[in-house]
Amino acid sequence: MPIEIIVSYDATEMDQDALALGQILAGEGDPLALAYVRHAKEEGDEREQLAAEEAAELLDSGARLLGKPDAPRFIVFSASTPEGLSQLAESEQASLIVFGSEYRTAGGHVEPQSSARRLLDGGRIAVAVAPAGFRERNGNKKIKTIGAITPDDDPCVKTTAESLAKRLGAKVATSPHIAPDLLVIGSKIGTRHGVVSMSAAGLYLMGAVRCPVLVLPRGVGVDF
Fold first, then answer.
1. Please, how many CA atoms are within 13 Å of residue 4, restricted to the half-sphere of its CB?
2. Is 0.70 topped by the overall pTM?
3. What is the pLDDT of residues 18-76, one digit of tens each?
4. How confident is the model at residue 149 (pLDDT cuts 50, 70, 90)?
5. Angle between helices 13-26 and 45-66 (to 10 degrees)
6. CATH number for the domain including 84?
7. What's the burial of 121, exposed, middle or buried (CB within 10 Å: 0-12/13-18/19+)?
8. How many domains does the chain have?
9. Is the Cβ–Cβ distance between 213 and 141 less than 8 Å?
10. Is residue 221 a part of any domain in this protein?
11. Would residue 47 count as lying in a domain?
12. pLDDT digits (tens, 9 = 90+) for 87-111
């Protein structure tokens, strides 16, 4: 069974938030994988072995935290974290990469870290970002309402929101005055099909909400 959701994980508190969000999105269905990008091998066999063991233990700790010690784990070599994750997603046929927010983001706020920002501006895969402190603040709280924002009539935004709502037993919010528990945003008008690109309004909204945000490539949804 192919991997559907990849969590970018390095054991920081922010990436533990990503892990918590990934677990919610995966539910009992989609396979969830953890990935860590190493930028280069160490010089010398002993140093490389130590670095490899540390990376493996880092991912093992994430799997234990997830409560799924057998969860797939990937150590990727790439000079660029977003490129390494994108290549992994392509090879595993994944449809979504989950990130935590930037270091020192205020609790409850969403601020994409640099790797997520790269994928939000020209990437070719859906990106989800967890608010800072999501793992601690969310606890066992369920996602009950899902908002769907699209700059025009891109149907993939609504179908993705509906698909996720069905999985989670949630409802798609129809009123803009309802604060959702998760927000799905489409890429801006004029973006090439299959590419992620957010409008200024979308970026502003991401910073204003207090819930996880899922951003889709233009014209491409995620089937949960």
1. 15
2. yes
3. 999 999 998 876 679 999 999 988 888 889 899 999 999 999 999 999 888 899 999 99
4. confident
5. 50
6. 3.40.50.12370
7. middle
8. 1
9. no
10. no
11. yes
12. 999 999 999 999 999 999 999 999 9
Domain with 74 in it: 5-215
Tokens for 54, please give them.
């540390």
Q: What are phi and psi of 168, to 5 degrees?
A: -90, -5
Three-state SS across the chain?
CCCCEEEECCCCHHHHHHHHHHHHHHCCCCCEEEEEEECCCCCCHHHHHHHHHHHHHHHHHHHHHHCCCCCCEEEEECCCHHHHHHHHHHHHCCCEEEECECCCCCCCCCCECHHHHHHHECCCCEEEECCCCHHHHHCCCCCCEEEEECCCCCHHHHHHHHHHHHHHCCEECCCCCCCCCEEEECCCCCCCCCCCECCHHHHHHHHHCCCCEEECCCCCCCCC
